[in-house]
Amino acid sequence: MLSVHNLDVRYGQFRAVQGVSIEITQGDIVSLIGANGAGKSTFLKAIAGALPIYSGSVSFKDQDITDTSSSTRVQQGLSLVPEGRRLFSEMTVEENLLLGKAAQRQGDWDIERIFTTFPNLVKRRYSKTGNLSGGEQQATAIGRALMANPELLILDEVSLGLSPLVVDQVYASIESLRDAGTTILLVEQDLERAITFSQRAICMLEGRIVLDKLTADTHRDEITQAYFGLNKATQQEVS
Ligand SMILES: Nc1ncnc2c1ncn2[C@@H]1O[C@H](COP(=O)(O)OP(=O)(O)OP(=O)(O)O)[C@@H](O)[C@H]1O
Question: What would you give as a GO molecular function for this chain, any one (predicted)?
Fold first, then answer.
């Protein structure tokens, strides 16, 4: 479904993502892991078309999308829930959700299904999102992405700033998406949760991938070593 080849993304001279290649197949559930500054958000934004690519290529459903706009990518079925949610705070939950419909993609997701999936939003339907709790804002951001009926849903740090209880609620909703067959790539800082939730873990360190394994074939210690750059053997294997 998604094929990224030798991707480089730069901020001026600084190579935030360096020669990264991954393949994601339909139905995959992939957690992207790595320390602060490892390049995870930069990588996701480049895939979603929110940042220009310096070199390399991105294909989605066998089409080269390296030079297409983010809105075209949404129309093709690739949606990103960005870190920090990026909602329109002066607009209501319903208005924010309806923005996601602009892509006009056919599918099962409509506004009523969003409210069924995120019951905490029902009472907030006509509230401005600037007045919502963090969990309600996150549910709105995920709902907005779902309104585009994505085939690949990319989620950047959905847990950020949420209490453990609310994180559980957000994950319960994402699990229902996973179980319905949506392909998911997400950044998760909590290693335990990443291993439990996903089939595959990819770890980034200083702009490169240092581990890419099925969660069934790895364990927490190996991921932790990759996270801190302590596992040279794994790094060589991947590169
Ligand atoms: N707009 C920017 N201009 C310059 N450098 C940037 C910019 N955004 C990110 N960087 C740098 O690029 C590197 C990768 O940042 P990025 O946000 O992608 O990492 P991350 O793994 O998502 O980390 P975090 O978990 O902190 O979000 C970091 O060194 C960061 O300081």
Answer: ATP binding
CA distance 19 to 84: 26
Provide ipTM, 2 decimals: 0.96
Answer whether 144 contacts ligand 1 (Cβ < 6 A).
no
Q: Is residue 141 part of a domain?
A: no
Does the beta carbon of 16 sit less than 6 angstroms from any atom of ligand 1?
Answer: yes
Tell me how crowded residue 133 is: count the other CB atoms within 10 A of its CB. Answer: 13
CATH number of the structural domain spanning residue 221: 3.40.50.300
**Cβ contacts of 210 within 8 Å, gap of 6 or more:** 203, 204, 226, 229, 231, 234, 235, 238
Copy the structure tokens of residue 74: 């949404």
Residue nearest to ligand 1 atom 5, measured at CA = 11
d(CA 158, CA 93): 18
Q: How far apart are CA 56 and CA 5, in angstroms?
A: 6
pLDDT per residue over 167-202, tens digit each? 888 888 788 778 878 899 999 988 888 888 899 999
131 within domain boundaries: no
Domain that includes residue 220, residue range: 2-85+152-238
The residue whose CA is least distant from atom 28 of ligand 1 is 37
- Of 75, 71, 142, 68, which Cα lies nearest the Cα of 106? 75
Q: Is residue 117 part of a domain?
A: no
Task: Measure the CA–CA gap between 84 and 87, rounded to whole angstroms.
Answer: 8
pLDDT digit string, tens, across residues 50-73: 999 999 999 999 999 999 999 999
Ligand 1 pocket residue status of 167, Cβ below 6 Å? no
Structural domains counted in the chain: 1
Residue with tokens 């999102």: 129
Q: Does any ligand 1 atom lie closer than 6 A to the CB of residue 34? A: yes
